[in-house]
Amino acid sequence: MDRKELTQIQIEQLVEDVVKELKEKLNKTVCTIEKHTESSFQKCALVMGQLGQDEEKRVTDVCQTVRTVDDVGWNMIIVADLSLGQMAQIALGLPVDSESENILQSLLEGKKVYILESGLEYRKYRESAYKTLYQIYLGYEDRIRKFGGEVVTDVQEIIERESAISTEREISGVTTGDDLDLTELGLLRESDLTKVRGNGYGTVVIGQSTIVTPLAQDYLTNHNLAVRRQ
């Protein structure tokens, strides 16, 4: 009788231990899923225009997407369609419609604005347009680039650029207050600055012998970034 009671106690203890272990594993699993979800969707894109089905899927695999500016949380814009009028409005800084205004506002705030090449309406007239007129729109595109807009070939390029930015933030870009420490670079290029754009830096710190390319200098000037050598 005593032996049976002891066995029963052992069984109850074993069940209690198993339940406790399962609860701990379940809690760890939930935390892991929540952490993964937060990491996967820390970026949110406002999509303007119509993406293809495959493009939409590739974008939503790596970040959340919204369709209206009223949706909260978006920190970048993907422009799938940009008309002639909208392009001129943005390049001249004189928005007429809400989409152009939102794009300009985002550029002013330092948010990423990606424009798909396939969505640039003016490029459809490359063969038929008079050269002088076509050159005007080429100039508009160049001005938008200088404002901080990035013209990309496809959504895969956006994914790769955003992935590179995330990696760069993890392994470099040491900051002190509002300073961006790039003293390890011997050559400062525009691409080095665009990788960390929108992070709130006010001063770029470079080495005494660091060479600044003309495009990087234009970027620094256009984005009101100070430079300090050390």
Largest sheet: 5 strands, parallel
Shape: extended
Q: How many DSSP helices? A: 8
Strand content: 15-25%
Work out the number of β strands. 11
| N- and C-termini, Cα separation | 83 Å
**Global Rg:** 26 Å
Contiguous uncertain segments of 5+ residues: 32-41, 173-177
Element string (H = helix, E = strand): HEHEEHHEHEHEEEHEEHE
Strand order of the largest sheet: 2-1-3-4-5
Give helix % range: 40-55%
Mean pLDDT over the full residue set? 81
Secondary-structure-derived class: alpha/beta
Tell me what the structure shows.
- The chain is α/β, with parallel strands linked by helices.
- The protein is 50% helix and 17% strand.
- The chain has helices at residues 2-40, 53-60, 84-92, 98-108, 131-147, 155-171, 190-194, 214-222, and strands spanning 44-48, 64-66, 76-79, 112-116, 150-152, 174-176, 179-181, 187-188, 203-206, 211-212, 226-229.
- The strands form 3 sheets. It has a 5-stranded parallel β-sheet.
- β1 (44-48), α2 (53-60) and β2 (64-66) form a beta-alpha-beta unit.
- The longest helix is centred in the first third of the chain and has 39 residues, at 2-40.
- The model is unreliable at 32-41 and 173-177 (pLDDT under 50).
List the keywords:
230 residues, five-stranded parallel sheet, four-stranded mixed sheet, alpha/beta
